[in-house]
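Morning!

This is the sequence you dropped in the shared folder:
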Amino acid sequence: MIDRVRVGILISGRGSNMVSLVRASEAADCPYRVVRVLSNVEDAAGLALAADAGVPTWGKSHKGMKRAEFDALLDAELRAADVELIALAGYMRLLSPEFIAGWQGRILNIHPSLLPLYKGLDTHARAIEAGDAEAGCSVHVVTPELDDGPVVAQARVPILPGDTADALAARVLVEEHRLYPQALTTYARTLR
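The structure's back. Tokens below.
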């Protein structure tokens, strides 16, 4: 039995990337194990999916709380589960600089663009409007600057004539589900 890296996943919604990470972790040779799924949305659909997969969950609304105060709760939950590496999977809230500093080099994120292009939101529409030939997704190390940390993996998808943001997003999501488990696997191996 390999000594697996203990991963905590942060989500805000349906959790499709979280599900792909959990499924990949079920392989006997996977170097990581998902030990907790946490959300800033109490009733995020992904929490039920994680629970169905046997992963302990935690959900609490951040509304009415200062960012650092909420992040301190997240930090306490992650540390109580002995998490070693965090994967952001559709976590739609910026983390505080204090939180990021406490987990420096141990937070990955998947972003739906070919970073450094199109940081932030509306990435697919922005790529189409710019006339780009391709779009894609990037897994990167989280730093205090939005979508700015070192890229560890990317996947590319052609932008087709007449593409809409939704159609492009659907094709990119397929690549996200393939890329993120691979990138997390590779990164987790560097921690052992």
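Headline: The CA atoms of residues 33 and 83 lie 10 Å apart.

More detail when I'm at my desk.
O.
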